[in-house]
Amino acid sequence: MLSKKERLQIAPVKMREQRPEQRIHNQNEVPLGYSPQEAILEAERCLQCKNAPCINGCPVEVDIPGFIGEIARGNFSAAFFKVSEKNVLPAICGRVCPQEEQCQAECTVTKVLKSAERSVNIGKLERFVADYAREKGMRPRVAHQAKSGKKVAVIGSGPAGLTVAGDLARLGHEVTLFEALHVVGGVLVYGIPEFRLPKSIVEYEIDALQQSGVGLKCNYVIGKIKSIKEMLREFDSVFIGTGAGLPRFMEIPGENLIGVYSANEYLTRANLMHAFDFPRSDTPILSGDTVAVVGGGNVAMDAARTALRAGAKKVTLVYRRSEKEMPARLEEIEHARQEGVRFQFLVNPVRILADQNEWVSGMELVRMKLGEPDSTGRRRPVVVPGSEFTMKTDLVIMAIGNSPNPLLLHETPELSINEWGGIIADPETGATSIAGVFAGGDIVLGAATVILAMGQGRRAAQSMHTYMMHSNGKKV
Amino acid sequence: MKKMIENTIIAKKTLAPGITSLKIYAPEICAKHKAGQFVILRGWPGGERIPLTIANTDRAKGAITLIFQSVGKTTLQLATLAVGDRVLDMAGPLGTRTHIERFGTVVCIGGGIGTAPLLPITKAMKAAGNKIVTILGFRSRDYIILQNEIEQLSDTLIIITDDGSSGQKGLVTDVLQQLFADGIKIDRIMAIGPAIMMRAVAELTRRAAIPTIASLNPIMIDGTGMCGGCRVTINGSMKFVCVDGPEFDAHQVAWDEVMQRLRTYKQHECRALENYQQNQPERISYAE
Ligand SMILES: Cc1cc2nc3c(=O)[nH]c(=O)nc-3n(C[C@H](O)[C@H](O)[C@H](O)COP(=O)(O)OP(=O)(O)OC[C@H]3O[C@@H](n4cnc5c(N)ncnc54)[C@H](O)[C@@H]3O)c2cc1C
Ligand code: SF4
Ligand code: FES
């Protein structure tokens, strides 16, 4: 047995990555994964804390020291079963969760060594066990309960909907998943790029759902083809996980010029429609030598890095606050920087400029400085008077955020929504203002994270189960 | 009898050179359809998602009719599908429904292929008790479509062609001006056709202060309000045509912008078409 001191002396095991100059020419994943030896070494860094503060940082309460302990002993299958008790999509979470703000922020090693960079790499280990299991074709070991005779409709197939569908199928209910697009997965397939989350991983998870008997119905825009009222006649309960798919724009002049994309459109063309294979794939996408991305979140990083892979020579990300306030994960910012994305902080576009053909030719921006903190606690950026300047660009990608998707809500006036357009749902149960209808994920939280969407889905599934088993078959 | 699979083409007609009508089995979409709504379809693996307005429904058969002109690669390839084939994906009915009411006299104006989406609207306006005056404009006699169907619904039907090969020679706006000159009281106008035609109609009727509705047909992807690619400025504010439209007050539409944005992928479209014509693929069948 290693002593605590010895464990603290092991250097964090870096994950090998594709070199930046190579990876910007392909769509393959950037981090290459741990070898078994690397995983065991990293796992040995865990102190196996009795109080396990890391678990408190995990929205779905994975038994972190438990699964890391199994890795350290070389029991990778056991480690996978431990993780999958709590997390139905570990291969996805291991890749896209903001661990540095969650489990890893709470980790004792982080605190003792006073360095976020030296925490136990919980996320990378989670990814390792999930990949190990997938390569071996393993599935979580969970008992399926006997058929309940209850029918459930899940609307939206992002992480929230997938979690609800999986959990309720295990509990013996007959689940049908309705998705508006032609493929299942939500943001995981149309938003997050292949080089960050290979689509084969999402497919493997969807496959598991189908094996557990979940029915998939793509091309169903609920609200249009079926109302919630009609669904309640057909199903014993309904879950709404329609996400935050409404792109925000800045409302500045020139935003509708040719060459201005929302990040959603740009990424959808690239990821969902494979526009970079044009004309082998039928969907086109505009390309430019210089691309400007507006925003500072994960979506902005994904758009910028996608533009590089599309052959842009110069990609500049403009953000109205300073680097410290950028909401993107550190790893994403780091990857973007290594790949050559340039950053301009404390600037904000005020107008998009056009050439004589009404195509984007540049942007006019102003400089900003940080003022008083706003309601989110971040310092509010204020314009520096007289600081206008222009910048040339062929494309502008707006990645300034997404709001809850209003389509279904417009068609369902009985559903109570809050002032920014999200569904009002009980944070503990996911119950909405309509009996039998539950909601979770970005449609409730606003654009949040995969793991929070899953956490909400998990809680909603539990309360839907209780609701169906105790409502004596009464429908509302 | 074998159970019919959704999205199967059950009838196909060529209405005019390059204009195809597909009747597709889609019982759920058919049951929900209201005038003005559209579907987004993707014909085959790797295909793009395109919006097409539902031109007709057959409730008994659970089928919808889509009418399109083959102008680019996707619509050319779509026209190669045959009865028994299936379109791969189809979502709908999308968009808001036409505001139907007993207005009095409604003038329905269709330009070319715009006649197809005009058909269900004309039908609904007629059913609501309106007097229907229809003006249809085509390139020439050969390109006239849906004349019988529209004629049955119209109290008056005027056809005009660019070259005078059928009806008068001229534009739909010429006919409209004639109606104005004749002092006919018009309560509402529905205009569907090329953007340039709808803009011309809007300009005329703005001066006459006649409420005019146009149906926009921008480039779309998802059709659910997720991408913003279909955005357009209406009365100074940004709207998404797929969810807020497709119909808008024609006097409030930023027409230049609409036309501009339709040209976004001109070069790509030419390339795709060339590539398709050079490689003339075998007719691909997705029948099951
Ligand atoms: C580019 C990008 C990068 C991101 N990166 C990260 C990251 O690194 N880490 C992280 O944790 N989070 C990230 N996020 C956020 C994360 O993806 C979301 O928080 C999460 O996907 C929300 O899950 P959800 O299930 O609520 O909704 P979504 O994933 O948005 O899925 C909703 C689904 O519902 C469908 N739908 C909508 N309306 C209807 C209707 N009426 N009928 C039927 N279906 C409907 C939609 O088509 C969609 O498929 C990112 C988001 C984006 C856009
Ligand atoms: S806090 Fe860190 S060191 Fe302690 S059990 Fe959790 S992961 Fe291991
Ligand atoms: S087509 Fe994407 S928002 Fe309308």
List the helices and strands and how they pair.
The complex is a heterodimer of chains A (476) and B (288).
Chain A: H1 4-9, H2 20-23, H3 36-43, H4 53-56, H5 64-72, H6 76-86, H7 90-96, H8 103-106, H9 108-112, H10 122-135, E1 151-155, H11 159-170, E2 174-178, H12 187-190, H13 199-211, E3 215-217, H14 228-234, E4 237-240, E5 246-247, E6 260-262, H15 263-272, E7 290-294, H16 298-309, E8 314-319, H17 330-339, E9 342-345, E10 347-354, E11 360-373, E12 379-383, E13 389-392, E14 395-398, E15 402-403, H18 407-410, E16 437-439, H19 442-445, H20 450-470
Parallel strand pairs in A: 1-2, 1-4, 2-3, 4-16, 6-14, 7-8, 7-14, 8-9
Antiparallel strand pairs in A: 5-15, 10-11, 11-12, 11-13
Helix pairs in contact in A: 3-5, 5-6, 5-10, 6-10, 7-10, 11-20, 15-16, 16-17
Chain B: E1 9-16, E2 19-25, H1 27-32, E3 38-42, E4 50-58, E5 63-69, H2 73-78, E6 89-94, E7 105-111, H3 115-127, E8 131-138, H4 147-153, E9 156-161, E10 168-169, H5 172-181, E11 188-192, H6 195-208, E12 212-215, E13 231-234, E14 237-240, H7 241-244, E15 247-249, H8 255-262, H9 266-279
Parallel strand pairs in B: 7-8, 7-11, 8-9, 9-10, 11-12
Antiparallel strand pairs in B: 1-2, 2-5, 3-4, 3-6, 4-5, 12-15, 13-14
Helix pairs in contact in B: 5-6
Bound molecules: flavin-adenine dinucleotide, iron/sulfur cluster (SF4) and FE2/S2 (inorganic) cluster (FES).
Give a structural overview.
The complex is a heterodimer of chains A (476) and B (288). In chain A, 36% of the residues lie in helices and 16% in strands. With 476 residues, chain A is an alpha/beta fold. The longest helix of chain A has 21 residues, at 450-470. In chain B, 28% of the residues lie in helices and 30% in strands. Chain B has helices spanning 27-32, 73-78, 115-127, 147-153, 172-181, 195-208, 241-244, 255-262, 266-279; strands at 9-16, 19-25, 38-42, 50-58, 63-69, 89-94, 105-111, 131-138, 156-161, 168-169, 188-192, 212-215, 231-234, 237-240, 247-249. A 7-stranded mixed β-sheet of chain B has the order 10-9-8-7-11-12-15, with helices on both faces. In chain B, strands 1-2-5-4-3-6 form a 6-stranded antiparallel β-sheet. In chain B, strand 3 (38-42) and strand 4 form a beta hairpin. Classes of the chains: A alpha/beta (476), B alpha/beta (288). The interface between A and B is large, with 43 and 44 residues. The structure holds flavin-adenine dinucleotide, iron/sulfur cluster and FE2/S2 (inorganic) cluster. Flavin-adenine dinucleotide binds at residues 96-97, 155-161, 178-181, 186-187, 191-192, 220-223, 241-243, 245, 267, 298-299, 302, 329, 405, 407-408, 441-443, 447-451, 453 of chain A.
